[in-house]
């Protein structure tokens, strides 16, 4: 095989979870893909020898060679120290071996400076929940910043498409189990503005990242309303004369945010009495979702003829809930569309 010059790669440590400096800092130099053997690896032209470990040469599958050298640096190196890996090999000049090769040099990052980030900064923009829009009659958008080693230099700013004033509340940083911090900034907006499709932008700046991270959100335009089906308890379950299970399926909707609640005799059912499973994406249907809700009631209440209703709210039904009801006497489910009228109480447009 003809001679091959080596490729040299720096290996530097990643950030620690808490940002604290490790007891020692390590740098390594990977020399690979060369032929023939051997190479000579030195640090700073041989001036640095303490803390150096050069590992045995390895032959890879294509017949070429790989070798690496590790340098352990004290935790408190002198200010301005730099380190370079010098590799000498009888490299190629045309197709001939060079009898007097010059070393290849690779300058590594200064100790304590990492070119990787174990916890990349993540910015998530969360829309108003349907509970807020339809029940609490308010709208808030949350900008969640997570994965920070330190939250000290964080800056979060907001803009809106109309350029109007902003009502912002920023919460204190929260320390997570992995040693990183998260911060949430909350923007209060008018329900009518969100429903009209106004655009809102969160801009995040942090010292660990050279450029700002910008996220934009607005009400989804491409909507699909859910189809809603309610099922009465099974006869075999009723025969046990203990509990009765009523199920509700909402399917084929987009986006995935949906509100599913229940009523009994037109009164709200406590949340602990029913279980929602989902939303989950439908198999083979991109951007369409379904959700199941399971309500447990006393068999005696079902037998006496109480009316139960599954109430579903979704953006595909502007300001409208689908109301599906079932009871022992009716024998079959019934459907009603219920419009939700928002009052002006505590709702202010800027």
Automatic annotation (TrEMBL):
Gene3D superfamilies: Immunoglobulins. PANTHER family: TAPASIN. Keywords: Immunoglobulin domain. This is Ig-like domain-containing protein. SMART domains: IGc1 (SM00407). It comes from the Eukaryota. It comes from Gopherus evgoodei. SUPFAM superfamilies: Immunoglobulin. PROSITE patterns: IG_LIKE (PS50835), IG_MHC (PS00290). Residues 6-89, 120-222, 226-327 form the Ig-like domain. The keyword rRNA-binding does not apply.
